[in-house]
Each structure stands twice: as C-alpha cells, then as structure tokens.
Design a protein that fits this description.
By secondary structure, this protein is α/β, with parallel strands linked by helices. It has seven helices and ten strands.
C-alpha cells in the first residue's frame, strides 16, 4: 500500500529531516509512527500527502509513484489518503452535515450523492443524531469524529491520522483510537502519528520509531519505546 524507498528530505542550507528511510506498509495494516519532536514525523506526513517533495528516493502509494507528483494531481492523491489532523479545521458557520458535505461539494459531487454519503459516514463515527448541530455545540471528541467522517467521504484506502488525540482528554482520546480501530476493520489502512504512549501500548499493533530522521525501530507488535 505504501512503499518508501531510500527517501531523504534535506532543507536548506543542509538540514536533514529524513535520512534514507525504507518502509513498506501493507494494505489493511494499522501502523503507529512515534518519535520525539524534531525526529521527522511531520516531514514524513507531508511527503505522503504530496505537500512536500523528497530530496531523494521514491514514494509509491497504491502502486502510484508520487515522488514527483504535480500540483494538479495532489487532489486525486488526497482522495486515496484521508487525512486527520490535530487541529479540527471545521467551519464554524456550517452544520456537521454541511462540514462533511463540503469535502464532496468541492469535488463536484451531485446533491443526491452527497445526501447518500454524508449520513452514512456520520453514522460510522456515531454522530448520525447530531447532523444539524454546529461545531460549537459539540465536544472536542465529537469534533474530531466529524473530521474523521470528512476524511472518509471519498472512501480512502489509507487514513493518515496526525496527532488526532493531541487536543483531547484521555477518555475522548481513547474513543478516537477505538474508532480508528473500527475503521481499520473495514479494511482501511491506518497510519497513526502520535505522542500518545498509552494509546500505542494498548493497540499492540506495528510501531515504527523515528529518531533524527531515520527509522530506529520497527516492531510488528510494538510498544512506545524511546
């Protein structure tokens, strides 16, 4: 599903954010990527979604070589990779339904298809009864669920969650991790970038550790060890 072949990322004048990383993430895997601040996690995320280009090596996602992806192709990549960030980035003046629908509207989907898809993804995240509410009327955990629903509207093969529990208390954080596990059981590949030690240890899934831009650990059934 995701192949990183000897990738590096060098920022001027000579700062190595990523150093010759080789990784293979298979379809349907649930992988946690951990590491202290400044170890290259954010840079890695940006290269996977086409926001940054690597300085060397090759990135292949779902058989598609995105190493030198052009700007016009990035939106098509983002439909294969659903992205969830720590910052919810919801539109305050739109209802939950409208927030999720917006991701389809910008792609030119018909109103009929939007009416079918949006309730479905909101049901997956447990918010089918709150579609008419606004972001300020729900909790932080529920707002993150809306973000996940929005990321699912294109039925992506991969869901990339970058610190999705960073702004949540322990209870809401646990619920978000459980939701990601539920989505993974549908067959979606999950890549979780996190500092949440408890969540990683409880998952007992594959753990990739970054240190100074390199892969310092790759455990099939791992723990958060730094």
């Amino acid at each position: 599903m995701i192949k990183l072949i000897n990738i590096s990322k060098i920022y001027p004048p000579n700062i190595a954010a990523l150093r010759k990383i080789n990784l293979h993430i298979k379809p349907g895997e649930f992988v946690s990527i951990v590491g202290q601040s400044g170890t290259g996690k954010t840079t890695l995320v940006k290269t996977l979604i086409g926001e940054e280009k690597v300085s060397g090596g090759k990135i292949i996602i779902g058989g598609w070589d995105i190493t030198n992806i052009g700007r016009r192709e990035v939106p098509f990549l983002r439909r294969q990779i659903g992205v969830v960030f720590q910052d919810f980035k919801l539109l305050d003046k739109k209802t939950l339904f409208e927030n999720v629908a917006f991701a389809l509207q910008v792609c030119g989907q018909t109103a009929k298809k939007i009416r079918n898809i949006v309730p479905h993804v909101l049901k997956i995240v447990g918010l089918e009864g709150k579609m008419k509410r606004y972001p300020y009327e729900i909790s932080g955990g529920e707002q993150q669920r809306v973000v996940i629903a929005r990321a699912l509207v294109h039925r992506p093969k991969i869901l990339l969650a970058d610190e999705p529990t960073g702004n949540l208390d322990s209870i809401n954080a646990e619920e978000i991790i459980e939701l990601l596990q539920k989505i993974n059981k549908f067959g979606t590949t999950i890549v979780l970038v996190t500092h949440n030690r408890e969540a990683v240890n409880r998952l007992r899934k594959r753990v990739i550790t970054l240190d100074k831009g390199t892969v310092s650990g790759d455990q099939a059934v791992g723990k958060y060890i730094l």
